[in-house]
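Fig. S4 source data, part A: sequence.
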Amino acid sequence: MKYLKWFFRTVRPYWGSLSVMMSCHVLLTACSIGFVYVSKKLVDTAVALLGGAEPSQGLSFWALLMVSIILFRIVLNALRSYLQTKTEISMKNSLRKRLFDILLHLQNDGGTRHHSGDVLNRLQDDVRVVSNAFAVSLPNLLGTALHFLAALIFLMTLEPRLGLLIVIIAPAGLIIGKFVTRRIRNLTHDIRKTSSQVQSHLQESVQNITLIQSMEYSGNSASTLDSIQGVLYGNEIRRTRFSVVSRIFISLAFQAGHAVAFLWGVWGISTGKVTYGMMTAFLQLVGQIQRPLADMSGQIPSLIHASASVDRLRELEALPAEESAEPHLLHGNVGIKLENVSFAYQVKEKSEGSDNQESKTVASLLFFYFSYEFKPGSRTAIVGPTGIGKSTMIRLLLALLKPREGKISLYDSSSEAPVSPATRINLVYVPQGNSLFSGTVRDNLLMGNPEATQQQLENALRTAAADFVFSLPSGLDTQCFEAGAGLSEGQAQRIAIARALLRPGSVLLLDEFSSALDAETETLLLERLTKELPDHTMVFITHREKVIEYCDSVLRLA
């Protein structure tokens, strides 16, 4: 029941395609039953002709009808396959976009809920599994069940006793399968979890391959991967073992049903109660009863596997989102006030005397009733030892973190507003390190303002001391690779600053923005920032003396 609401929300845009698919399944079922009926009539007509009788319809009529059914079935199967593939791809893309949008608007609690590799695994593998289940496996399961019921009803009309016997024998496989369902589901959940660990390890290793090589840690990293994959392999083998055993018992039940139908037909022919056409129909119908049951035995586990993926996707959707509001842009010189602000990160620690699985959450206090004011148009350097809370303060100003107590607000000459996602438009943030994305220099700049003109782009580059872009062979259309590869760290930093300057805000938050710059370039950048943006409020996180020289106040955290 807990999945129904989520299921209907996911498949609602595809009701039309799913309805056509189910119509195809209905028509395919009709074709299969019709084929059995035509086969019976064809055999009985042939036998009648051998006996010298004159049947109402000749062989050619039934043969032509059989060919027509076959051709119609081919067309229906092609249409169904096309719709399934189209719907699966569309659903996969839509579901991934929905989840990605949720991730982009998550409320930051200061901790890490999920490893990035685990999140990527959910967005890739789990989305693929769920889309396949909803667009392919579930419609096929319903179509298969319909086919089973239709074949069973037809068999009951021909020979009720045989139909009843098959009903008793055939479900034996499904009953056995029910006992392994729970175990398969649990193993699938473990497989998904371990697969995410593999993804996370691979991602971290690829991102830090230079560090791994320099530390000569390649062997250890490979051993870790081998260990995780060993656990994954064991779980997958156990799940496969359960599936194989269940299929063996299911096959035994099905073979028994086929043998009973064959012997029943032979006995009926010997007593004159069953025609050769009926015998043909018996064998086909039993096959059409057993085959859907076999299909369902494979489709049901796939849906069980999908339920584990649904759980993992619902976990992402259940994460709290940050508040949504229209952007609130202040005007003129903007200042910032922190009043009695307290903040602590939630950190998990192992409980004393416990095993490795047990931990408790404790608070790591950074600010305790802290107050400060960044006055409008001021330039402030925030300094202090590593881990004291400098970057945390920036996140608090950006409303990426919420203080436990106290108030943080932005103000201009006529109004004041508490910091929130709505006030983020007033802030221009440049993070520490290389923050460029794959694409051209122009693509990266337009992230700051998609509507920026060529002149605005050029002005931002000059202010950020990134004039070197104009001398690049392709200029603004120069390609930046992952994490700004192809550019030096200093060049990437200056382009990131230019990107930030295209935003409308008048408060600059710069986190070690010049860490990769030489002294001459750093001085040039500071001069241009202070000259071109004299009314902007600037907050620098820095360890550089040159930056401090350009500030009119210093906030020392200790």
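Fig. S4 source data, part B ends here. The chain is about 60% helix and 10% strand.
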